[in-house]
Design brief:
Layout (H helix, E strand, L loop, with lengths): L16 H9 L6 E2 L16 H12 L14 H12 L4 H4 L3 E7 H16 L4 E6 L5 H7 L3 E6 L1 E2 L4 E2 L1 H9 L6 E5 L12 H14 L2 E6 L9 H13 L4 E6 L11 E7 L3 H19 L5 H11 L1 H32 L7 H4 L4 E3 L4 H11 L1 E2 L5 E3 L8 H14 L2
Parallel strand pairs: 1-12, 3-4, 3-7, 7-8, 8-9
Antiparallel strand pairs: 2-10, 5-6, 9-10, 11-13
Length: about 400
């Protein structure tokens, strides 16, 4: 007897996660996976931070800890610490109780809860997202019920920011439209506005009545400084206006599989924040009821203890610095080879990813001939590189640029 699902078509492989699937099937000893957005050590191994192991040990040894459900909004200490981390400990918005923070399932879950809330309660159902952006963004917002539009962001010729295009597109957006902004280390391009440009974006958005929705997946990972990477968000909060911020601890604490994130909404008053939180609970309850307890307990343990917090910032900076070193080594290797083209964008871009400027054919050539795996748009994860594998990647890029043009 036929299955009742016999007519279901095979779904397409996720363009990002599919890279790892293909990589795992490859039997070449020289294969290199630069598709996955996860930090790797110089030995190519996943890293669990020492401070995270320490926090987990404390939690395991605490005999008073139980496995009861968290409230719908999550772990209170985690929410409080997360808001302070992103908005600043002395943020007037926090002191005036104008911020509501709910624990969510990492960055994706935070975006989705925010999107569901906006689709239900906000008068404008259109969200503008940068072109290009993280592959999951359009789906998260459209499935939640928002109409997705794009604003110009990346200029392929300069491999930098199309700032004029960005301003023009935001200027022509309808009043009240939501605008997704990458807080730092833009994914996939690694291209960020300067603080002066951020100020112009802020002024334009506030004058147009546009609602900022920040996605902060890499705080501390871009520059090595938690405060510097939060500056754009803090500029928007300082003007007294409202904004959304989705946070993830996947990258900066290496808690990928623990799915630890938070959604914060900065409101005009404490009264509005309280009502917003009551409605966020009504979004979360039928979705996943309440969030997990282990991951946020790790984060709260670290953020509440001064010594552990300091230890975390040192480990975080070491990760950020290793990525910066990999950028320099790849740039130097391509320069030494005399590879055609200007590769300075590799050291100008920041964060985990580099938008190489390689086209689909060149990417396919590198995978086939050199067993180098990356997303088809030419995005590579710098964290997947090591001093040992830089020469192999440089060889592959050189050959691709030379032969696959």
């Amino acid at each position: 007897m036929d299955s009742v699902f016999a007519n279901i078509a095979q779904g397409p492989e996720d363009p990002i996660l599919g890279v790892t699937v293909a990589y795992n099937k490859d039997t070449s000893p020289n294969k290199l996976n630069l598709g996955v957005g996860a930090y790797r050590t110089e030995e190519g191994k996943p890293l669990v931070l020492n401070v995270v192991r320490k926090a987990e040990q404390l939690l395991v040894n605490d005999q008073s800890r139980v496995k009861e459900y968290l409230p719908i909004t999550g772990l209170a200490d985690f929410n409080k610490c997360s808001a302070k981390l992103i908005f600043g400990a002395d943020s007037p918005a926090i002191q005036e109780n104008r911020v509501t923070t709910v624990q969510c399932l990492s960055g994706t879950g935070s975006l989705r809860v925010g999107a569901e809330f906006l689709a239900k309660h906000y008068h404008q159902r259109t969200i503008y997202i940068p072109r290009p952006t993280w592959g999951n963004h359009p789906k998260v917002f459209s499935i939640a019920g928002l109409a997705v539009e794009y604003y110009r962001y990346y200029e392929p010729n300069t491999r930098g920011l199309d700032f004029q295009g960005l301003l023009e597109d935001l200027k022509s957006a309808p009043a009240g439209a939501i605008v997704l902004l990458h807080a730092c280390a833009h994914n996939p391009t690694g291209v960020d506005p300067t603080l002066e440009q951020w100020e112009q974006i802020r002024q334009l958005m506030r004058s147009q009545g546009l609602l900022p929705f920040f996605d902060s997946a890499y705080q501390g990972f871009a520059s090595g400084s938690l405060d510097a990477d939060a500056q754009p968000i803090r500029m928007f909060v300082a003007d007294g206006g409202e904004c959304f911020a989705a946070q993830s601890y996947a990258k900066n604490m290496g808690l990928y599989g623990e799915r630890v994130g938070a959604l914060s909404i900065v409101c005009k008053s404490a009264d509005v924040a309280s009502r917003v939180e009551s409605q966020l609970k009504l979004v979360i309850r039928p979705m996943y009821s309440n969030p997990p307890i282990h991951g946020p307990s790790i984060v709260a343990t670290i953020l509440k203890d001064r010594d552990m917090y300091n230890e975390w910032t040192v480990e975080l900076k070491a990760m950020a610095d290793r990525i910066i070193t990999m950028r320099q080594q790849l740039f130097d290797a391509l320069t030494a080879k005399g590879t055609a083209g200007d590769w300075s964008h590799i050291i100008k871009q920041i964060g985990m990813f580099t938008f190489t400027g390689l086209n689909t054919e060149q990417v396919a050539f590198m995978t086939k001939e050199y067993h180098v795996y990356m997303t088809s748009d030419g995005r590579i994860s710098m964290a997947g590189l090591s001093s040992k594998t830089v020469p192999h990647l440089a060889d592959a890029i050189h050959a691709a640029v030379t032969k696959a043009n």
